[in-house]
Batch of 4 targets.
Target 1
Amino acid sequence: MSYDSNNIFAKILRGEIPAHRVYEDEHTIAFMDVMPQADGHTLVIPKTPSRNILDADPETLARLIAVVQKIAVAAKKAFEADGVTVIQFNEPAAGQTVYHLHFHVIPRVEGLPLKPHSGTMEDQGVLAANAQKLRDAL
């Protein structure tokens, strides 16, 4: 399958849809997931069009994973987490629903289960506050 330039993350990259951005460099952006499974749930995406890990250029992946690590370290600190879950899906059978390469970075607290990725959007004030916490930790 090919890359769809009208996916929601491509629209965020073009500024057509707002997002609570926490990090950006010339190759990558990170922003808050609007349906977080835990406080601080962040998405890290390349600016280069890639459907998923299966078609991504190795240089894109190298730059992207470095930012994933940076966000994971900051998220653990900002949200006083005991650990961090990093998830990445490829194609529908694996659970991918947005066809732009992305990593989920989710701070985890021992004994606290993930909330469902339910389709219910988080309050924008909460997302803004969590984004600021993460920016402060970076």
Note: Helices lie at 8-13, 58-78, 124-137.
Target 2
Amino acid sequence: MRVFIAGVDGYLGWPLAQHLSARGHEIAGVDAMLRRAWVAERGSVSAVPIASIGERLAAFRDASGASLSFTHLDLRDQPKLGETLAAFAPDAVVHLAECPSAPYSMIDFEHADFVQTNNVSGTLGLLFAMREHCPDAHLVKLGTMGEYGTPDMDIPEGFFEVEFRGRRDRLPFPRQAGSWYHWSKVFDSQNVSFACRLWGLAVTDVMQGIVYGSWCPPSDPRLSSRLDFDEAFGTSVNRFCCQAVIGHPITPYGSGTQSRGLLSLADSMQCLTLALEHPAAPGEYRVFNQLRDVVSIGRLAELVRDAARALGISARIAPVDNPRAEAEAHHYNPDSNKLRELGFRPSAPIDVELRRMIDDLVPHTDRVRAHAHRLPPTVRWEPAAACTASAAEEP
């Protein structure tokens, strides 16, 4: 299969290219290299040092014996994107090329506007380019479980049956996103669904939970994927592991009772591969909830603490005030059956994955410690109560 990965330089994109190539697929990729710039803007680095794109491509060729066709490209450059797709003629397109940070989108107007413009316009550009140059290719678009929010009912995979005033229909499950970033993903899902109906594209929309874990092939450090730990781009589990490694307290937000779906980086690779190798039909828009476990943030902190202690690292938990406007006590029971029906079998248990990640991080302790000032939360959501109070005080 010829697979085109948008966002190939990223946390998911780089290991996915390696994983798919090892399965015999031919890979091409594009990336605007913005994730590197965003993390640098926040004064941070990847905990695991990452090679330049040139070094990465050389390592890919050395390890696989195959070339990865790479183009430096922003998806909003629609003419160049169309030329690149036409030249490669993919069987499948994986869309990972978006800004994936809720805190980054909540800094101020400029960041909120950039995230929504980058994500929504980039996705639209990709859809129009696919319609023109590879309409028969299968699109796998990465969404997020955060699109759903935390409704007080079970979460289906994209759609549910509704009865209202004596009539029934199958409708998209309501989205209740909690950041400007998550709303950009909601808009993406609606646009992708519409393009699928309008043009007959084959689409799998993947609502992915929190991904954690490292990708550090021992054969060649140039093949390692990034692992961010700053407040904007580090996922909760990855942040917790970095805190444990440098001897800082592990800091879940608030009560820690917020529940989230999560899966390891290795399991994300398995799930995305299953979606690609079992494509949607032409004109079909399907939604997969991609997660392995539902765990509270407080329990995740305990699991990281215990994994660190098992490796002889002293670790403790010290909750901090929650900077986000979110429900801390809530119902959370998402379905995740479709990928399992395709053959998804979770790999190592979470405690094993955590110990493996901490082992990978230990050699880079000084690197993490040098940027530890980017771990505490500084970006705060504006509570609705504060907005209401301010409005009431106006003359």
Note: The longest strand covers residues 138-144.
Target 3
Amino acid sequence: MPDAKKNVAVLGAGLIGTDLVSKVHHSKTLDCRLVVGRDRASLGLRRAADMGCATSAGGIEALLESEPCGIVFDASSADAHAEHWARLRSTGTTLIDLTPTQLGTMVVPPVNGQAALEHRHINLVSCGGQAALPVLHAVARHCVPQYIEVVSTGASASAGPATRRNLDQYIALTQAAIRCFTGVPEAKVMVNLTPARPAPPFRVAMTVLAPGLRPRLVRSAVTAAAAKVRAYAPGFAITSLAVDDDRICVAVEVTAAGGRIPRYAGNLDLINAAAVLLAEQYAAARSC
């Protein structure tokens, strides 16, 4: 007989945490037992309670005092994450980090998703990283990139206070991940938050400079990478792709597919979908 659902908890009740709770609520293998925030009156905690989750405004202490959970999603902030891991390390919990810290093992499901089964401290890089890295990694298998530039543009309303405070960490970590997964010696990441109305969907533009490109192979690699992402994030789409002798330009657009966030917040939908996918794979592996 299969085991019961895997107990999980969510640290953070902002935009990301609220959508995570919604996705876990619809999972066949995960059960959200606790959502922890810091403001008892926050909308995120109220929505979590409406979905039947126990909630607390007691921070990491409340989580440590609760029934142990096999998996914890950290959707708080980069500043708080190091303490969270230090406090949870000895508990046996697997911590999936959705904050832009340079801690833990960097994981992007289509690139190295199996690594999540071998480590207890998983780093999901950033929403921009989750959008760009499947494509860039696939491209790098068919060329030797010399320079990569990634420009992410998201709606202002999709970036909460913690995300705004952590933009420097977001950029540094995403650049480090690009270098790690592609071998490129130089990578540059830029982030734009736009107040435009109506709010535009999350968009990521990538430029790769590499000598001796083979356009047919590159196009096939990009198409295959996009299909892998759409398997867990259906709103992921390639909107343009141009390849010449030494330059690749790719643009992707991500829209949110249901849940507790608007369609334009594809950045949140994508990283949360990756987090839940890895947690479900972890739960399945542990139940065998």
Note: The mean pLDDT is 93.
Target 4
Amino acid sequence: MPGTSHVQDAPLMDADALEQRLRAIGAARYHNLHPFHEMLHGGQLNKGQVQAWALNRYYYQSSIPIKDAVVLSRFRDRQTRVEWRHRIEDHDGDAGSEGGIERWLQLTTGLGLDAAYVESTQGILPATRFAVDAYVHFVGRQPPLEAIASSLTELFAPSIHEQRIAGMLKHYDFINPSVMTYFQRRLEQAPRDANFALDYVRTHATTPEAREAVCQALIFKTNVLWVQLDALYHAYVTGFPPPGAFIPRGMES
């Protein structure tokens, strides 16, 4: 991408060069740059469009613990499994405590969507399903190092959560703090997870080829996130939802 070619062409001779490249990838490719997110955070969407975003994003959120269970299964090293398994609890919750999926359902319910409909995933866009399923398949198919590397979008997540909390509370009268608890909780969880993954790839990617594979895994993940917003924009901003997709009130033909 413009402005990053000199970084991308540099040989990845050590862990510092790897981290520099990873951060450059995030700066150029993270989905906070997508026009749909700019509209979401800037108050330029209507309620139906926000509903469509939350509905589709549920499929991603509810697939994260499945993805993490697959990652965990790739490691015979107990310490890595112990460190990774809290991610599943973060999203699924535990006895007597809610997790991220439940907090996301608080958001969709607060937006006026029926929880059973959201959980059924019947109304999501085909591109959402294809992209998220591809991510789950990726972590099971690629080497374990790349499976962990694909989670490194969490390095850039806190800033987008802060923008989302501030922007949506400011611009939408149908949003209140009680339905934004998912993002507030991730402000604490994402840096912890990202730091472990970054330390892991810095330590275990010991050759230029392995470091390049780590970077390609992160690029793959940014594409997974970006294409979901492409689909949302085409369906609900341009106005071409595919057959079977959720149709917000007022968009019916």
Note: The domain at 21-238 is CATH 1.20.910.10 (Heme Oxygenase; Chain A).
